[in-house]
Specification:
single chain, 290 residues, alpha+beta, Uridine Diphospho-n-acetylenolpyruvylglucosamine Reductase, domain 2, Uridine Diphospho-n-acetylenolpyruvylglucosamine Reductase, domain 3, Enolase-like, domain 1, 3 domains, five-stranded antiparallel β-sheet, 12 helices, 13 strands, 26% strand
Length: 290
């Protein structure tokens, strides 16, 4: 399995990379390489040019900016998993990063490469939906900000334009009253999510005052089950109530089906893991369920 011949380019800045993208319209960006390189070896992708972002140090930074956590698109899964700043301000993302792939993947793979690839079974999209993330994309006309609810548009499809580079992921700080959790039923061979559910909720007087849930692995793209969220806000936090709401987690979704899981089984897992993730997030947020 040897890829077709290509020219390799290694820019030292985002500006240089953007110029290369304009000058080489058939080029592909290389981040961690765990998605693109296997496709190239199988000759399913044959880009004539590769633009490696690995030497752009500015894209690897993780920093707190007032009440926003800024994560460079080239930050590796391990960097996110082990970052004290991420653990403090966005523990859900650190938890999710620790469940991506295996040790080798977490050391080389990047958050930007993962979300830009938009695999329907990737872990990050669920957590980023639950955390109300924003994405910063740099293009020929300057930067623009994309809300997470608008970012994942379909199978391997995002709101990024062809000549844009994802540079940052921004997250509002999880406040002290917010509990969160990411749980998944992993494929035993790949580690990808057959179903993955992330939940973040803030309790007030024994009731969820705010809740966001992200689900991955189930449909063509990660999504929020808004009917579930609406049923839970302002209601007493009880296992029965959560279970009733979780029954709607796959409603209206074109549920994926493959050799490992039928659509019926995947929909069942979605309901089960939605309940479990919400219950765990509530417990971590200080809720007592009945």
């Amino acid at each position: 399995m040897i890829p077709a011949a290509f020219e390799y380019h290694r820019p030292s800045s985002v500006k240089d990379a953007l110029k290369m993208l304009q000058d080489l319209p058939d080029a592909k960006l290389l981040a961690g390489g765990h998605s693109l390189l296997p496709l190239m070896k199988l000759r399913l992708a044959n880009p004539p040019h590769l633009i490696d972002l690995g030497r752009i140090d500015a894209l690897r930074q993780i920093r707190a900016d007032r009440n926003i956590l800024v994560i460079g698109a080239m930050a590796s899964h391990w960097m996110i998993e082990s970052s004290e700043s991420v653990k403090r301000h966005a523990p859900l993302l650190a938890e999710t990063a620790g469940k991506v792939g295996d040790v080798q993947v977490r050391n080389a793979g990047t958050i930007g490469g993962s979300v830009a690839h938009a695999d329907p079974a990737a872990d990050y999209p669920a957590a980023l939906l639950a955390l109300d993330a924003q994405f910063v994309a740099e293009g020929p006309n300057g930067p623009r900000v994309i809300a997470v609810d608008d970012f994942f548009t379909g199978v391997f499809s995002t709101a990024l334009d062809a000549h844009e580079i994802l540079t940052e992921v921004r997250l509002p700080f999880q406040d002290a009253g917010t509990g969160s959790a990411y749980l998944k039923f992993a494929h035993p061979a790949s580690g990808f999510a057959v179903v993955g559910v992330a939940a973040a909720l803030r309790m007030n007087g024994g009731k969820p005052a705010r809740i966001r849930i992200g689900i991955t692995g189930v449909g063509p793209a990660a999504y929020r089950p808004k009917a579930v969220e609406e049923l839970l806000v302002g209601k007493p936090f009880e296992a029965r109530t959560v279970a009733e709401a979780a029954n709607l987690a796959a409603d209206g979704v074109d549920v994926n089906e493959d050799l490992f899981a039928s659509s019926e089984y995947r929909a069942h897992l979605t309901r089960v893991f939605t309940k479990r993730a919400v219950m765990l997030a509530g417990e971590r947020g200080g809720a007592r369920s009945e």
